Amino acid sequence: MIATFISDFGNKDNAVAIAKGLILKSNPELRLIDISHEIAPYDLLQCSYLLNSAFRNFPEETVHISMFDIMHRHPAQILFARIEGQIIISADNGMFTFTFPGADIAIWKYEAPASANYIEWLRKVANLIQEMHAAQFDFEQLKAVVFEPEVQTTPLRAMVKDMQIDCHVIHIDRFGNVVLNITQEEFEAYRRNRQFSIRIPRNVPVTQLSQNYNDVIQGERLCLFNSAGYLEIAIREGSAAQLLGLELFKKDQLIYNIIPIEFS
Q1: Same domain (yes/no): 97, 128
Q2: Does residue 152 form part of some domain?
């Protein structure tokens, strides 16, 4: 059985190692895989993007443990759901409603005493995984009830206007490539075969999409849909975030980047 981890813990301290140890104590047969621990602290938008773009690539009944913002509500509860054949576990922090808006999924709450800290929460997650495996992932056999999350969130969607879409930066990878909150499917639906112009602040607009990073010369800007299907701004062999001055969207931040896409 496979379990993945995603968190905003970072890799500077020992929190990730402690988490893995706690899970393995009760489930020594598990194969553990890290999705990412470099999410910006409390950045639900970035966590949602990384989890949503990764989990479908794993074998069925992989358990995905989101350790992001475990103590958003105190004491912390354990929520879980089956989504496209995968099992996702999270605290009650808005992850499910933000990442899977409108999805017809049952969210369950593990009936265990609430957790006062992340160590207690992970010990109970370890027990839950053990029980899931014993029950062959039949949630009806678990000490759990269908539950409406107390934390309800709304996903950050691109703002649609008549001749324009305003997009936000939801992720910047280690190469400085900038991911926007619009998928290829959404882009084509809004575009309707019209010409487009992606207006990067203080730069000449991009008016065509590339298929890969080698479509342009070194140091040149490009836009393409990445492997997760999201629109990405990049500079070949350079950092688009740094060179173009683009930053992650942050809630309640007064100054942030809006990337307009104009149609004609």
Answers
A1: yes
A2: no
Range of the domain at 244: 159-263
Domain count, the chain: 2
Neighbour-count burial of 174, counting CB atoms closer than 10 A to its CB (0-12 exposed, 13-18 middle, 19+ buried): exposed
Is 99 found in the same domain as 129? yes
Q: Examine residue 13 and state whether it is found in any structural domain, yes or no.
A: yes
Predicted TM-score (pTM) of this structure: 0.87
Q: Which stretch, 74-78, 131-135, 157-161, has highest mean pLDDT?
A: 131-135
pLDDT in tens, 54-65: 999 999 999 999
> Which residue's structure tokens are 């576990």?
89
Structure confidence at residue 263 (pLDDT): 92
β pairing state of 31-36 and 79-83: unpaired
Q: Is the same domain home to 23 and 139?
A: yes
Residues 105 and 194 in one domain: no
pLDDT in tens, 105-114: 999 999 988 8
